[in-house]
Amino acid sequence: MLPTQSGSLRLFRFRGIDVFVHWSWFLYPLYRIQTWQEDYASPIWKAYECLALFGIVLLHEFGHSLACRQTGGRADRIVLWPLGGVAFVDPPPRAGATLWSIAAGPLVNVVLVPVLFGLSTFAADHWFETAPETVQFLRNINQINLGLLIFNLLPIYPLDGGQILRSLLWFWLGRARSLMVAASLGFVGVAGLAALAVWAESYWLGLIAYFAATQCWRSLQHARGLARVENAPLRPGIACPVCHAAPPTGNFWGCSRCRQAFDTFATQGVCPQCQTRYESTRCTACGQMQPLPLWYPAAPDLPPPLPPV
């Protein structure tokens, strides 16, 4: 389960992106300070490491969010929690847009590798005798960034590596099948993480394995839903005003009030259960929300659109 705004503290807003920290994130620095090793004279340096980790993860998530914005997608929220960070991004449903939105996060860590390596090398050459703890701190931060980069690039869904693999497969297999393959392969990686967690007696790896397993299962269910959309017959005489794709016939839209699935074009945008009226509908191909009347340029004989609420 992903962290939500509930139980999270809003820190700041940058370029329209709200940054939250979940209350559970504070358990990690508390754990690190209590279990600090004697590579420092004082545990305060472990607190500094946690702050540096906070900054590295935040930059990583901003990489995802800003790249998503470049593709025309939506990205307005980042939540930090003990298992890392989550950038809530919604890129256009295209392989290239999704690939760039995901790959931009690890690219931030790639850029940081020579910067942190240079700083740690410079510190070791000039401050080893006068400030050994600063040298050790920079070395540890360099290793943390490198470790996060390598771990994130593992081809295990939903890690960045698994999502990059899915985006590459999308070019050849399509949207639904690529997600199904990546999520299925993710279970293999989850099994490996779980075995490593048992061998290393690491609760942290165990939590990551559990989180990855739940996300793989949800993604597999989502892939099956996408496959149903792709295989459904298209509704004639109607087209998305943005990408000109015909919508599928079936209950592929959901009411935000009562959660009822329905066919928005069969009911003219009205939920059949609670009678909530929707003036706009989302295209299953491009993901854009457009007013319902604009979908009917090729069908003048269809009933007129409903009046505004």
List the helices and strands and how they pair.
Elements: E1 8-14, E2 17-22, H1 27-34, H2 44-70, E3 74-81, E4 84-90, H3 95-126, H4 132-152, H5 160-173, H6 175-200, H7 203-231, E5 253-254, E6 261-262, E7 280-282, E8 289-291
Helix pairs in contact: 1-2, 2-3, 2-4, 3-4, 3-5, 5-6, 6-7
Main beta sheet strand tally, sense and closure: 4 strands, mixed
Span of the ends, CA to CA: 36 Å
Q: Taking strands numbered 1, 2, ... along the chain, how are they ordered across the largest sheet?
A: 1-2-3-4
As a percent range, the share of strand residues is: 5-15%
The gyration radius over C-alpha positions equals 24 Å
Topology, number of strands:
8
> Structural class of the helices, strands and pairings?
alpha+beta
Total count of domains? 3
Give the overall shape, derived from the CA principal axes.
elongated
Please outline what is shown here.
51% of the residues lie in helices and 12% in strands.
Question: How would you characterize this protein structure?
Answer:
By secondary structure, the protein is α+β, with helices and mostly antiparallel strands. It has three domains: 1-153, no CATH class; 167-231; 238-309, no CATH class. 51% of the residues lie in helices and 12% in strands. The strands form three sheets. A four-stranded mixed beta sheet has the order 1-2-3-4, with helices on one face. A two-stranded antiparallel sheet has the order 5-6. α6 runs antiparallel to α7. The longest helix has 32 residues, at 95-126. The two termini are 36 Å apart. Residues 298-309 have low confidence and may be disordered.
